[in-house]
UniProtKB/TrEMBL annotation:
Belongs to the RNA methyltransferase RsmE family. This is Ribosomal RNA small subunit methyltransferase E. The keyword ATP-binding does not apply. Keywords: Cytoplasm, Methyltransferase, rRNA processing, S-adenosyl-L-methionine, Transferase. GO terms for molecular function: rRNA (uridine-N3-)-methyltransferase activity. Residues 24-70 form the Ribosomal RNA small subunit methyltransferase E PUA-like domain. GO terms for cellular component: cytoplasm. Specifically methylates the N3 position of the uracil ring of uridine 1498 (m3U1498) in 16S rRNA. Acts on the fully assembled 30S ribosomal subunit. It catalyses: uridine(1498) in 16S rRNA + S-adenosyl-L-methionine = N(3)-methyluridine(1498) in 16S rRNA + S-adenosyl-L-homocysteine + H(+). Residues 81-241 form the Ribosomal RNA small subunit methyltransferase E methyltransferase domain. Its main location: cytoplasm. InterPro entries: Alpha/beta_knot_MTases, PUA-like_sf, RsmE, RsmE_MTase_dom, RsmE_PUA-like, tRNA_m1G_MTases_N.
Length: 249
């Protein structure tokens, strides 16, 4: 099995080199010691979630939440190219976390929560802050599980106007829509620049939203002959783009 992955905060691996010792404590140290029950001699990977990672061996364990890692290798992963962002309309229940989890595992680089007109779920006040925190925690855990050194950015919630601005600045922008005349698998992709996908809510993308996105340069595309749920469409579409743009080659 691959070595388990743990995460530090941004900049937590700065300046480390082979031969150094990294201390893992707090919640991650507790998980490593008390849940994973790691012992000296076992291999681990630690990442800052921003492209840096170290591979090493557990040198010592103390208490229930602290271990020392002898650093063997340091790796810095370049930013992905092209960058893929999914604008995800807010689903009902825990389907938002499911969408974030599977998109993270697939390789999406950023997720933008979208408050679409037909969304049943609304993020307001403390409830909205908790929901956003859940999405970010889900991305972090899924990033570790899938052995990523770069975790996806989970942006602040956006309205339709903000989404249209994001689409206008993309090299390629698409709205997943069952009435799309062309398949995403055949869409002409640019040689350079960011790719942005829009996934609508359970009730579909409203006509005025489609019009605003079209004005911003985002055409409607279909995935295939079936209609996917909002919680799975982004993952399927991202997989299509990742395969076509060469990131899965």
């Amino acid at each position: 099995m691959s070595a388990p992955v743990f995460a530090t905060g941004p900049g937590g691996l700065a300046g480390l080199a082979p031969g150094d010792t990294l201390v893992l404590d707090g919640p991650e140290g507790r998980h490593a010691v008390s849940v994973r029950r790691l012992r000296p001699g076992e291999e681990v990977v630690v990442t800052d979630g921003a492209g840096a990672g170290v591979a090493g061996t557990v040198a010592a364990v103390s208490g229930k939440d602290r271990l020392e890692v002898a650093v063997d290798r340091v790796h810095r992963e370049p930013a992905p190219h092209p960058r893929i962002t999914v604008v995800q309309a807010l689903p009902k229940g825990d389907r938002g976390e499911l969408a974030v989890e599977t998109m993270t595992e697939t390789g999406v680089d950023a997720v933008v929560p979208w408050t679409a007109a037909r969304c049943v779920t609304r993020w307001k006040g403390e409830r909205g802050a908790k929901a956003l925190a859940k999405w970010r925690a889900t991305a972090r855990e899924a990033g570790k599980q899938s052995r990523r050194l770069r975790f996806p950015d989970i942006a602040e919630p956006a309205g339709t106007k903000e989404v249209a601005g994001l689409l206008a600045g993309a090299a390629f922008a698409a709205v997943l829509h069952e009435a799309g005349g062309a398949p995403l698998a055949g869409a002409p992709l640019p040689p350079d620049g960011d790719l942005v996908l829009v996934v609508g809510p359970e009730g579909g993308v409203a006509p005025d939203e489609l019009a605003a996105f079209a004005e911003a340069g985002a055409a409607p595309y279909r995935l295939g002959p079936t209609v996917l749920r909002t919680s799975t469409a982004g993952t399927a579409a991202a997989a299509v783009l990742l395969a076509r743009c060469g990131r899965w080659s």
